[in-house]
Amino acid sequence: MKFFDLLSLVLDNLARRKARVALTAVGVIIGTAAVVVLVSLATGLQRNATEQLAGIGDLTLINVFSSFGGGEGGPGPIVISGPGFPVGGPKPQAIINDEAIKSIQALPGVTAVIPRDYLQAGAWLEVGQLQGGGGILGIPPEGVDVLGLKAAQGEVTLARNTIVAGSQIATSFFPKRSRPGAQPPPPPDLFDKTLKLVLTKFSQDGVEVRKTLQVRVVAVLQQTGGEPDYSIYMPLDQVTSFNEWALGKKINRNREGYQQLAVKASDVDKVLDIADAIKALGFEAFSPQSFVQGISGFFLVLQVVFGGVGAIALLVAAIGIANTMAMAVLERTREIGLMKAVGATNRDVLAVFLGEAGGIGLVGGVGGVALGWGAGQIINVVALAFLAGQAAQNGGPPPSIAVYTPAWLPIFAIVFASIIGILSGLYPALRAATLNPMEALKYE
């Protein structure tokens, strides 16, 4: 039997029983729509979570720290101070010195390595009758491009006695002397202002020692939602001189190293491999990309689970297809005998019934994709309106999408529904194909 003859026969047979085919296809439509909606929902949640996590920092950056350990018993605790305070705890096992920087720079996929040091002394800024501050971080001039620092005001340049302020630094300022019940003043405009930087340390006798200098704000950074918003950037060599004053000794980089490194990867996909290579050198490495990968893995499992729930509905529909095709075999037994009597082979009969079962699955799959896509758009509108309101109340960025249907999903859903239809009709089709033509013609 030729293909077009087979196709014509299948369509004629389905058209003869429109109501039964439609009722059977409804089950497939519901199951397919469930798969499309649930998988689209999980995919939309994944994309939304990835977008939100992307705001925590540059995904191509890797922060590298000295490794601390406790000998054969395993790694000991890592003690890292907050910005502006001395670092205490055990000595590092691996020092971030110039040799380490060269080794990391030589790793495949690494485009830049810059050292970074936090100020290891108490510090605050004063402007007029206000004082405030943040973590003072020293970086070399080339670190501006590596860290992707963009200015909202001014130009991001690092020079002696100048600072680059994060977008939220101004909100940390408060009056030196405030009266009870007084309203806090609005955040000051720091750009192009000359501020007083006050450094403090304590002598061995417990006496507070202060050092004061004038600094000018040459740039205020764009808001990123990450570390740069609360950081104050200064030249690395000047922060090093401040730390030497605070510690009371010269810092030997070969012996004591740097506090941390920022490693720039050429591509997001290489970040985790580079981080593993850095750990193999004996250092601690962290990147926001590790969070993103963990979230992606979780949502991949969620997609499988949601898809499985929808597939259960399709399996229920498959029982309906099998029942419909079994009834068709009983009703058309004499027709099958007549087909065989005029020359149809078992393969021809099998192809006709499998084609009908697959046709029901195909119709249900197409209808289910259309229904699932429409339902997804409705959910998208309602969910985005609700989530946008929640984001406005909590002060966070609104989500861009709640339900997202990837291009492969409709194709997969239609093919899967068609395959389910064919498999459901396999037993009735085999039964029809193996009927004895003489007995089939005599069947009442």
What report would you give on this structure?
Helix 8 packs parallel to helix 12. Strands 1, 2, 3, 4, 5, 6, 7, 8, 9, 10, 11, 12 and 13 form a 13-stranded mixed β-sheet that branches. Helix content is 50%, strand content 17%. The protein is elongated and about 115 Å long. The protein has two domains: 3-55 and 294-441, no CATH class; 61-286, no CATH class. The chain has 444 residues and is α+β, with helices and mostly antiparallel strands.
List the helices and strands and how they pair.
Blueprint: H1 3-16, H2 18-54, E1 61-65, H3 98-105, E2 110-118, E3 122-127, E4 130-132, E5 135-139, H4 143-146, E6 151-154, E7 162-165, E8 174-175, E9 194-202, E10 208-221, E11 231-235, H5 236-247, H6 253-256, E12 260-265, H7 271-280, E13 284-286, H8 288-331, H9 333-341, H10 346-394, H11 408-424, H12 426-433, H13 437-441
Parallel strand pairs: 5-11, 7-10
Antiparallel strand pairs: 1-12, 1-13, 2-5, 2-12, 3-4, 3-9, 4-8, 6-10, 7-11, 9-10
Helix pairs in contact: 1-10, 2-8, 2-10, 2-11, 8-11, 8-12, 10-11, 10-12
Overall body shape: elongated
Number of domains: 2
Oligomer: single chain
Which band does the percent of strand residues land in?
Answer: 15-25%
How many helical elements? 13
Output the radius of gyration.
35 Å
**What structural class should be given to the helix and strand makeup?**
alpha+beta
Low-confidence stretches: 70-89
Biggest sheet overview: 13 strands, mixed
